[in-house]
Amino acid sequence: MPAPAEWQARRRRRTATAVAAEGARALQPLPERPPPPATLSQELTEQAHLAGPLALNLIANYSLNIVSLSFVGKLGDTSQLAAAALGTSLSAMSGKIPLMGLCGAVDTLASQASGAGQPVGIIFQRATLFLMLHCLPIAAAFVSLPALLAALGQPAEVCALVRAYLLALLPNLFIDAVARPLNRILVAQRMTQPQMAVGLVVAVQHVAACWLCVHRLGMGYLGAAVASVWSNVLSLALLVGWVAAAGLGERVWGRPSREAFTGWRQFAGLAYASAAMKCIESWSFSLMNILSGWLPNAAQSVAAISVAFNLYGILFMGFSAFAMAASTRVGNSLGAGSASGARLAALGAALAAPVIWIFVAFVLTWPPSQAALLSLFTNGTDEVLLQRMRSLLYLVVVLELFDGAQTILSGIIGGVGKQKRGSLINVLAYWLCAVPVACLLGFWAKQGVVGFYSGMCLGPAIQTFAYLALILRLHWGAEADAAMQRVAAAT
């Protein structure tokens, strides 16, 4: 822990740098400062209080696509189900994942600004404008993706159906451009209960929305996309309504300011590096789903890897929630000038990873729970498919160990603001190592989907050790000083 004189010197430097930027913001409500860290157990408890509601919210949001596809599946039209599933995957790959990555800049800047006691509304405004601007090229990609599918040999009928589905999902892009910064701003100020409540309410009503649009109104498979847009609009409206009703508008989105059009160089540097980290990893795993269609017994291979991927996604939410909590706690401490607090938060987050993994491993390997999970996706008559799924689940356990650990460690990196180094690590881990090895095992060694997942385990393993080495080499005192300078420039 830094000496009192050193800590006071840091505080004076931050105050002197920030005072010139205060101006009209002096009367705005400031975020409450996070409580100072005490013990490791207290830090873990604090992170768990943040991560618990976030995990439920993430699971509720993840369930929306599953519910939508289940309603489309009941229509009995294989082409429409394939188009809806493919459209959902493409919209995530080309829209949701990039926007989620770009929003990583908010994790760094807002958490550090909140820890420093500075207003974060200007960061929300800047982030929303930045994401809205990027929605335009993403929307253009939406329109062109079906043509790419046709060039890759997809049937013309499926391509036409996918194009209509993507166009119906297009409003979700612009909704996300507001909803994601809003959620990150709330998390940065340690507010996670509202997102959980809103997520659960929206998930329940989404069942009724899908039934109404798909069946009652006769919109068919496009009704699932319309219901998805409606649920996202409702989620954003409820969250905005809660912020307004709680009187937190000034503290969350602030007053409109021209300063939102400044500071883009700093924001873009963090945003693009964060997006690279997220996209490299997510696109690499999505590529395995696409390549599985080129294997012998393609139908069973695609089904097995799709089921494994869905189970993987659901059980992964605990790691994602703790990563967000870690980013918040580390960023808050650095913004407050507490190097020891940031170090303690990083240690607590790292120790949470094996605890979560033990639970995930138990669920995936205990025979009764394993059978219950597989029964959600198959009727149990195809023994070959079941055997492939069981083999994949054991690989998923190994993958969750490393991928869960690297996800939480990436949250620490985001809280510090080292996304650029993280993106370089991901290039090495996936594009230079995991994907080539997975292709060799899957095709050349003829191990199929098991080879794909075995090879992909290499990526998170490299990430975990590289991220850990990066974090262990951090000089926390210097990072606290850098955070104060970053906050002064951002607010």
UniProtKB/TrEMBL annotation:
Keyword presence, Transmembrane helix: yes
Keyword Transmembrane helix tagged: yes
InterPro entries xrefs: MATE_euk (IPR045069), MATE_fam (IPR002528)
Cellular component per GO, a single term: membrane
Compartment(s) of residence: Membrane
Membrane topology summary: Multi-pass membrane protein
Region Disordered, residue ranges: 1-39
Alphabetically ordered keywords of this record: Membrane, Transmembrane, Transmembrane helix
Protein's UniProt name: Protein DETOXIFICATION
Organism: Micractinium conductrix
